[in-house]
Amino acid sequence: MTLLSVVRDVCAAVGVAIPQSIFSNLTGNRTTQEMVSTANEMAQRITADHRDWTRLRKVQTYTGDGVTTAWDLPANYRRMLLTSNVWRSTSTEQPMAFISDTEDWLNRRYGNATDNAWGEWTMLGGQIHLWPALAVDETAYFAYLDRNCVALASGGFSDSFLADLDRFVLDERLLKLGMILDWKQKKGSAYAEDMGTYQDALENAAGRDQPAPIIGSRMLRSTDASIAIPTQTIFVPG
Q1: Do 137 and 185 belong together in one domain?
Q2: What's the pTM?
Q3: Can you give the pLDDT at residue 233?
Q4: Cross-strand partners of 2
């Protein structure tokens, strides 16, 4: 579904005029302005606030030059995954240590701390800092969440809708249900049932967004085979 299709469905559900176009007269139509704003807000909530959707997971790799310690984040970077670590190609069994406190990071660098043999990393000034510097041809890599949740009709991706025929990269039904809920909340209408419908759909989509767990990988030789439990004879002294 395109953004136009989603917005038309939302308008029908909340009882406002259904537009023939969204962006052709956006500046002169308060309702379509609010619809676009609601669509962008809900798209961001769905993609970033609930789970690390597999569709939006990306991997970044840096290749060392022996000198650089501060690296620009990818242009489409939103945040690290909830379980992300930073790894060095020279240490694939132990990730680098994350230093969350900036004061601690600075003190460790000026104090030449060397107690983390696998290296350390932090976020500072919109960059990721790696210590020690990656050796020539050594790599560091991590997974992150892509901020671009809109497939543009003109090509490429964006973090917001720009045209009628743009598409949400995840389930468009989630976007529609979320917009209906958000619209009713903002307008002071009853929305309890809409919240339940949206949350059910969100949980269902999240549950499908991961492979089913494998309980066991060993199979019987035949579907007609049966399992025999050996019996044990107990001798009772006479």
Answers
A1: no
A2: 0.82
A3: 47
A4: 167
